[in-house]
């Protein structure tokens, strides 16, 4: 009879097959006769199987030193990843209001350049503000232009019209943006390939600002650049301006 107590296994002396069991025990532990041993070695039954015990994982230091190759980490060379350049480069914050931009020389110069370009393009004429005209608001939008490596390229200031204040039927009639169908592009490319034509590509700078308006549209003078001699006049738009509902159609 086999009895178990405190994880120790022993055989009862009252068993009839004590001698046979002793021989089996001796074969298991490579001993001649367990009865001749004064203090027999107990058999310990572990609480958890050995297979469930996780093997200790090697430390990173032991893994890094298993090969003789000199790596950058071993030599102490640590360089920033180029794809994280935008997150590590300090970028000038874009002002939320034109009054903040006027205090910065870079943004102020960008606003001056925008006004100069609009005046050179004859975008508007200053006219008296009468009660029978609807004046659209205007505001400044600022954007930081970056290079491919994340470095600052230039500061861009854009004067836009507050198109959400326009009234349909009064300030504009319809809104649409003329686009070229893909079938037309494929036809042109097919003809160029068939007749061996040379293809050229161009980009129109400030394309929205080159279209002439058919409707009457008036905006407030640019904030921060109000004509001191005519402060109460408004801008009668001759050309389209960013933000207008009808600007894409011109």
Automatic annotation (TrEMBL):
Transmembrane segments: none annotated. Residues 121-248 form the Reverse transcriptase Ty1/copia-type domain. Residues 43-68 are annotated as: Disordered. It holds the Pfam family RVT_2. This is Reverse transcriptase Ty1/copia-type domain-containing protein. It comes from Nymphaea colorata.
